[in-house]
Write the structure tokens for this entry.
Amino acid sequence: MTTILIKNIQIITMNRKEEIFIGDLLIENNKIKQIGTNLNVNTADKIIDGTNRTIIPGFVQTHIHLCQTLFRGKGDDLELMDWLRNRIWPLEAAHDEESIYYSAMLGIGELIESGTTTIVDMETVHHTEHAFRAIAESGIRALSGKVMMDKGDEVPLPLQEKTTESISKSVELLEKWNGFDNGRIQYAFSPRFVVSCTEELLKEVKSLSDHYHVKVHTHASENQGEIQIVQKETGMRNVVYLDHLGLANDRLILAHCIWLDEEEKRIIKEKGVHVSHCPGSNLKLASGIADTPYLVCNHASVSLGADGAPCNNNLDMFNEMRLAALIQKPIHGPTAMDAKTVFRMATIGGARAVGMEKEIGSIEVGKRADLAILNLHNFHTYPSYDVDPISRIVYSATRADVETTIIDGKIVMENKMMKTLDKEI
Ligand code: GUN
Ligand code: FE
């Protein structure tokens, strides 16, 4: 049994009452064992003094492409379809076992350093095995999968695959990695987007996700050019088409969802589809501004993701939270996306999207210990706890403020020293 005691720390619980208080927290193995003020615990394998520090649930990012970390800076001023055709697809096609491993490790290092403890990741067509290897070694919690692309003449030859091959390779990876390390790794089918997938493939993904009870992770309604292609080929809008194939359910995670019509919004809400909002990417690729206030007000599931590093130039959840709040203010007013709503999306909202709201996303006894310790005192104001810590985090924290990251009860970064990654990068 391993125990970690964190003493005298400000705890932002994100429990049902969203309580915030100063107290102690005891971790036993991979779970939160006790929370309270002045816990009567005298010994632990490790004791952390949390004075003047804040502990939060680790961030859950619901849309990431680890394989793209090394493509940062490529095609900075392009729109989605040109960016994919001219930059990203040729680069993905050029990946080998080593480059995908290091791309994933670098991305994971940045994620852990900025307090992200769970990701929903989409890889590329080949070598996904080596991204899983990086995920396994690093300690991050991840749902990941090989990209599926069995359609599209524009896709470079090395990335084109046959439907049966795309499915068999995905199932092979699923059988190897789903459930690895006590469920820390899960498989998620990853048909890239409707543009690159045949109907046959998408139908098979639907029945396989039912059979294996795993998530489906894809992009939808991100860009006008993409929507026109889908409309031309299927006669439908993205979400309507996915619903028509039976894919619209609470196992579906849809990245972006910017250009939704009323019917698509209704389907998302009624079928419990999870939207991964990626404000940084949506701005940088000139895709648009998603109507997240509408979705949130209508109780749709909305969480956050940084997308691939080149969509954004970093993988930092602080950046996404801040943008998610700021971009709505000039359109819908100052409280349309307030700090607490955004922080909820980044923590418990992400946990809900990955189907783990009973296990992660908040600091509660019995939950898995996925946590980040922040130093919010690099902020010049009257020295007191009167500053709303959630507002402080959303509007001004940076990855430099994250001191320690804990995943599944293991300290993976402490005082900015990466534990498992030191020797790898
Ligand atoms: N749509 C299809 N593929 C991609 C991708 O790699 N990134 C983004 N942002 N959108 C996509
Ligand atoms: Fe993406």
Remarks:
- The radius of gyration is 21 Å.
- The chain has a mean pLDDT of 95.
